[in-house]
Amino acid sequence: MRSLWNDEEARRYPGELGLRVYSSRLLGRDKSLVLHGGGNTSVKIREPDIFGEEREVLYVKGSGWDLEFIEAEGFAPVDLQHLVRLAELPRLSDPEMVEQLKTHTLRASAPTPSVEAILHAVIPHKYVDHTHADALLTLTNNPDGARHVRAVYGERVIVVPYVMPGFDLARECARIFREQARPETEGMVLMNHGLFTFGDTARESYERMIRLVDEAERYLQAHGAWETGPALPAVDSTPMDTLAYARLRGEISRAAGRPMVLSAERDEQALGFARHPDVARIATQGPATPDHVIRTKRLPLIGRDVSRYVEEYIAYFEAHAPQAAEPKTMLDPAPRVVLDPEFGLACAGRTPKEAAIVRDIYRHTIDIILRAEALGGYRALAAKDIFDMEYWSLEQAKLARQGEPPEFAGEVALVTGAASGIGRATVEALRARGAAVIALDVDERVHELSGVDCLTLGCDVTDGEQVEMALEAGVEQFGGVDMAVLNAGVFPGGTPIAELGDEAWREVMAVNLDANLRLMRELAPYLALAPRGGRVVVMGSKNVSAPGPGAAAYSASKAALTQLARVAALEWAGQGVRVNVLHPDAVFDTGIWSEAVLAARAAHYGMSVEQYKRKNLLGVELNSRDVAELAACVLGTAFAKVTGAQIPIDGGNERVV
Question: What pLDDT, in 10s, does the model give residues 56-76?
């Protein structure tokens, strides 16, 4: 652990709040300190109110902000003296605490203050930092945790037994701090929770955090409890059964009551831990800190028996809910973490981002568990303490405020020809509706679409091996395929039949027809497992019903593709998979329409380019986004009872109508 403080960087953050922003970002950069919104920081500042009278204000991290990217606006200014007085009350309910925090926040546009704001207020130092450092969690999730903490720090830190975050923790910390704090006190360890440091300057508080965590890391190293890699079993490179993986994702989705993304990690750490000879014991003690339960659930699923996991989760809820102060509504019982010797570490979420957060948290949990085992054993908090956090009224209120998810949240779509034109617009339309997308194209521009919710792969759809590898990668990344938009195609230059060679014919058929047959064949078993039923949109063409001279290969390939789609609609309906065809025409913002070609075609009809673009019954110009939006609509609930349909999108063509 090394300090990242840089005086030159720090000068770019003027003022006391500016330095609070800077040092908070330094903490956020290090994932072994905080993860995905974890941790919080504060600074106490004297500043004038509207009457010019000075008052003490606590600027504390606001809910929803991440320390790595926090801005000054991410800190909520709260009346400090009011918070200190609150800590003197004998009791304060969670709703009352939130009400007091909100009503005594001094800027209407500020975020909701951290639930640990009162705790920050009662620590009598200007700057306060709080992290969930891996090294500290390793020490405290141990049968002899308190002794290890004292062995590292002696009397330089205050040790607070576990108390659930909120008012009770703040009140207890205030009491202990008054009784035990000395001039040489550098920090406060909250058992099974994390570490607080403080100081008169942002740098002092930050570097105390770094130094104390570094001491914990060195202690673990000295006791042979730091390096975890060599202890992991050997890993082989056997490919996983992606169809079995998709079935597992389907079972998890049913347990959750909605589609879920399932992302697999199969590197040395993930497979090694999943194959650990004692994984059934060490991985079922509970999370490294109660905060993580909101993301990961209390326990992972070991293996693939989802129904048993659900039964055990229900039993866990029924055992602890009656002891709660108020009635609780059970959350979905689906696992968020799966440890399987073939699949490695698989993480579930309503979105790829959620699954990635679960993955990051559990990666660190693996290290904490293995290090704690090497130090004498990993022992998490009791199930009741974890339940109290998982069903904390403040967390349940957050969930209630989330609202309805996007239409395709948790679902996975595959799009071919995704680098440009209709394909690219379709990827964007599906992502906007919450889908995870597997985007395929031979064009390198496809990688411009890459993101946590979009896996971009260079793939020649005429190459069976490339298609198979792409599909395996996509399923491993997201858990399955629910929707497919078969868009890749070629439109060769006009060639009369009398001049059409065999090779040119086969090249068109290979892309427009044969490749789509292969894709449909490979996709079929995954589409049948889609939680909400599989859906396919095939990009046909106006040429199917109104061919033009010189386009024999293109027109014939699209006509054959349309017939293929119709047969698929017949064959797959019994499995809940629907297949529909779109027939676009005159979509000019695609790669096949260069300025020269447009000018030539317009001249052929004696029109300007603008007139030619609107040469349809409605007199409208079509673009790739128009087609993409219709494709997304056809994949959605509005077309839930439609299959085998052929839908033109051409502004009205007199030859088709």
Answer: 999 999 988 999 999 999 999
